Amino acid sequence: MNPTLSFGTERWLAGLLLFPAIGFGHHSQFGRYITDTLIELEGEITRVQWRNPHVLFTLSVTENDGQAVIWQIETTALGTLLRMGVTSDLVDVGDRVRIAGSPPTGAIKEMFAHNLLTPDGKELLMDRRAQIRWSDRSIGSDEFWSESEGDTSSPELGIFRVWSFTFESPVIFPETFSSISRDFDVNSYPLTEYARTALAAFDLATDNPTVNCTPKGMPTIMEQPYPIEFVQQDENITLRIEEYDLVRTIHMGADALPAEQLASSLGYSVGRWEDEMLVVTTTRVDWPYFNQSGILQSEAVEIIEHFTPSSDGSRLYYKLTVTDPAIFTEPVEQEKYWLWRPQEEVQPYNCLVDH
Q1: Residue 244: what are its φ and ψ, rounded to 5°?
Q2: Which domains does the chain have, with CATH numbers?
Q3: Integer Cα distance of 210 and 354 in angstroms
Q4: Residue 45 contacts by C-beta under 8 Å, 6 or more apart in sequence?
Q5: Helix (H, G, I), strand (E, B), or coil: what is residue 14?
Q6: What φ, ψ does residue 180 adopt, rounded to 5°?
Q7: Which among 15-19, 34-38, 332-336 has the top mean pLDDT?
Q8: Inter-residue contact 107 to 71 (CB < 8 Å)
Q9: Is residue 118 within 8 Å of 126, Cβ to Cβ?
Q10: Separation between Cα atoms, residue 17 and residue 344, nearest integer Å
Q11: Biggest alpha carbon distance in the chain?
Q12: Cβ-contact 218, 309 below 8 angstroms
């Protein structure tokens, strides 16, 4: 074992190597479905759960031999569907529907749904990659996610507002976005030999670290594709994150020393202003992952973030720098931006555990 890693991280890796078949939760489509293939099913909905992290259906399908087979249907998160205009009143138990989606890689009868045709002929586009397949009465625009420019009406608000995700921005963890990951090699990170060994042992289909609504820690949580909000709270700053309903506190005073704080999944964050730019240094992180794709993280990690609002207030630029000598041979830097859309809010996430 690498002596610079914490005991907790060493113990986690040992468990991973010995017991690779643990369950998985959020982003569970990765590895389970053939993402470049679509199949169609037709049947009756027997159960529906409108929820985060993914909306779930069960579909009774009559096969060629006349036997009814239950398929497990998974699709996009509830928060995403609502923002696309796909609401829970459009589909109900007992509806006979047609569904197109990605088939399973294994023998389990399951699908990741992209399109759903309702009994009254409406076509629901349930994934931002979905194209109209059957009907010109479609619901599910992804225009909200594809906007490239934000509102410029209130530059005086600075950083303190709700900032919205857009797919027009670069992403800081391209390996976790399926539309990008097929062209991205996770091994391109500057990994130490120890980290490469751990990565080689990781199975994305079974070892996802956010199993059963386990919230992401830092820096993984900053990839989340939902709004965030900065709020001034006394002398400190609160960062509200929609995914998992998480709240980060950014300590702006010098009273508490990070080395004296208990470690946590989000770590201990200390901020300072450089003109309009908020610079945040986070240490004391005991979340043992850099990302969801198998790159570890030691408790010696230092995470530096730069949040810079544009002069017209339409964008919030973000730079992430991660230094962890046990995992990376050099600091890793990533950048992205959010947009300001005045109508947007941080919504309750209310992640529900799979049963």
Answers
A1: 65, 10
A2: 7-23+149-339 (2.40.128.20), 39-142 (2.40.50.140)
A3: 12
A4: 57, 58, 59, 60, 91, 92, 93, 94, 95, 96, 97
A5: helix
A6: -115, -35
A7: 332-336
A8: no
A9: no
A10: 43
A11: 72
A12: no
Amino acid code (one letter) for 23? G
Neighbouring CB atoms inside 10 A of 99's CB total 24
Which element (helix H / strand E) includes 239? strand 236-241
Bridge-partner residues for 52, per DSSP? Answer: 351
- DSSP-assigned letters across all residues of 128-168: TT----S-SSEE---HHHH------S-GGGTT-SEEB--TT
Torsion angle, alpha carbons of 226, 230, 236, 242, to 10: -20
Q: What is the spatial distance between Cα 1 and Cα 298, in angstroms, rounded to a whole number?
A: 12
The confidence score (pLDDT) of residue 263 equals: 95
Gap between the Cα atoms of 95 and 241, Å rounded: 35
pLDDT tens-digit map of 126-175:
987 788 999 888 998 877 777 889 999 999 999 999 999 998 999 898 87
Alpha-carbon torsion (162, 164, 170, 172), positive or negative: positive
CA distance 22 to 210: 11
Tokens of 278: 């908020």
What is 40-85 written as a DSSP string? EEEEEEEEEE--BS--EEEEEEE-TTS-EEEEEEE-S-HHHHHHHT
In eight-state DSSP terms, residue 273 is E
Give the separation between CA 99 and CA 206, rounded to whole angstroms: 26
Q: What is the pLDDT of residues 322-336, one digit of tens each?
A: 999 999 999 999 999
How far is residue 296's CA from residue 289's CA, in Å, rounded to a whole number? 4
Q: In angstroms, rounded to a whole number, what is the distance separating the alpha carbons of residues 154 and 227?
A: 18
In the 8-state DSSP scheme, what is residue 296?
B
On the question of pLDDT at 39 being above 60, the answer is yes
